Task: inverse folding
């Protein structure tokens, strides 16, 4: 009997000693599948943080949360949130309750980089066609020259597949312009449209992609085009632009260096700040330049650099935006080494950061690419953490009061951009639509 118990005890001890080794290998008998090499284009986008379907933990994937998952109603800013879903080429307008009240989409497009809602109910879209559609369009038009759009008789050709379009509230297309627009677009109080453009240049044997500020007429015709490279190199005493970038994937597969990679541009929107002069002029534009880690203010009428901030402090930022108090808010994405994103508010007069938002657990708010931040009436900030598939509203004290999870038709998380619009903009169009449907 003693021998039997000794054998059992020895077996248990042996099992206990070996258990950690087995536990550390969940399926020791199964061979790992061979890894497939991603295409270079996919690797580049992933390194930029420009993924369309964010990775998801098994626990979150199992829960499949979607739509509004947090709504502290008394503390949430009234209004409707427009979410540009990437890569669905779709924009949805949702109420704070999570109800989708309006959808715009273009099934033939590959992606809408950004959509913005205008006060009259129209939607401005920065879009891109699939490579196959671009090539078909090029062949059909027998060359790279623009053709006349049968919609309105204007020149239409999707240069490099990129275009700018304006849709009515009911989804009908008002106009579209073949234009290498990207990342950002806005309509000013004068009806003119501001966006970012692209073109290749060679300076001192350096082949690079120059980014431009484009000012367009209300119907999308180019009125002014200003080179960011020319402006940023015009005043070395204020800013000495490096002719290289520390971003590892800035050299594109075609050998063109993406030296600047601008991703946001906005005209100074607060006339009351004009009395201060300096960077608060009506023709002043705030630009975010990701690969140089900076935000800058440029007078587009004088092609003059007025203010630069960020090198040494920012890491691949997005979405520099003016604030009503004269400060600037920036979405500071951060590198993978840093491991977190943050929002910063800087006072241009002193260069000091006066407010910061980040989470205690770094991974809770981290998107290496994209991302938006919008100051809302009352003090809250609407944030899209694009590579985490979530939009949230946070107070200045750091309390999240609203959270929305964005998923596509296939149930996977989607990257996105988001902005909130006041009820007085949206409700008249909703009421008109309901009346028409009766």
Result:
């Amino acid at each position: 009997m003693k021998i039997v118990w000794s054998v059992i005890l020895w077996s248990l001890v042996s099992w206990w000693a070996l258990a950690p080794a087995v536990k550390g290998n969940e399926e020791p008998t199964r061979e790992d599948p061979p890894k497939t090499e991603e295409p270079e284009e996919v690797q580049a986008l992933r390194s930029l943080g420009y993924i369309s379907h964010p990775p998801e933990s098994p626990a979150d994937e199992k829960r499949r949360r979607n739509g509004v998952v947090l709504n502290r109603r008394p503390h949430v800013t009234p209004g409707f949130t427009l979410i540009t879903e990437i890569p669905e080429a779709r924009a949805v307008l949702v109420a704070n309750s999570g109800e989708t009240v309006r959808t715009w989409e273009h099934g033939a497009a590959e992606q809408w980089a950004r959509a913005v809602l205008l006060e009259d109910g129209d939607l401005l879209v920065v879009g891109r066609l699939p490579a196959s559609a671009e090539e078909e369009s090029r062949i059909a038009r027998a060359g790279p020259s623009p053709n006349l759009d049968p919609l309105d008789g204007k020149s239409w050709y999707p240069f490099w597949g990129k275009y700018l379009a304006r849709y009515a509230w009911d989804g009908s297309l008002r106009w579209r312009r073949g234009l290498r627009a990207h990342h950002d677009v806005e309509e000013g109080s004068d009806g003119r449209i501001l966006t970012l453009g692209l073109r290749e240049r060679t300076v001192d044997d350096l082949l690079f992609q120059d980014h431009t500020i484009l000012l367009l007429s209300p119907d999308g015709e180019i009125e002014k085009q200003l080179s960011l490279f020319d402006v940023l190199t015009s005043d070395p005493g204020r800013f000495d632009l490096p002719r290289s970038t520390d971003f590892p994937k800035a050299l594109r597969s075609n050998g063109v260096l993406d030296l600047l990679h601008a991703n946001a541009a906005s005209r100074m929107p607060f006339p009351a700040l004009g009395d201060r002069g300096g960077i608060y002029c009506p023709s002043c534009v705030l630009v975010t330049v990701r690969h140089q880690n900076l935000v800058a203010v440029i007078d587009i009428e004088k092609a003059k650099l007025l203010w630069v901030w960020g090198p040494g402090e920012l890491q691949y930022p997005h979405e520099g935006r003016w604030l009503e108090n004269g400060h600037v808010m920036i979405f500071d994405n951060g590198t993978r080494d840093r491991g977190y994103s943050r929002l910063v508010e800087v006072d241009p007069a002193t260069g000091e950061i006066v407010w910061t938002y980040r989470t205690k657990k770094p991974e809770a708010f981290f998107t290496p690419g994209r991302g938006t931040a919008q100051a809302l009436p009352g003090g809250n900030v609407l944030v899209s953490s694009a590579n985490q598939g979530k939009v949230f509203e946070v107070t200045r004290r750091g309390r999240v009061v609203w959270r929305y999870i964005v998923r596509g038709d296939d149930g996977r998380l989607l990257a996105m951009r988001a902005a909130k619009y006041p009820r007085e903009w949206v409700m008249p169009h909703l009421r008109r639509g309901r009346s028409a449907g009766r």
Notes: The first strand starts at residue 67 and ends at 71. Confidence is low (pLDDT under 50) at residues 1-47, 139-144. Residues 389 and 406 are 5 Å apart (CA to CA).
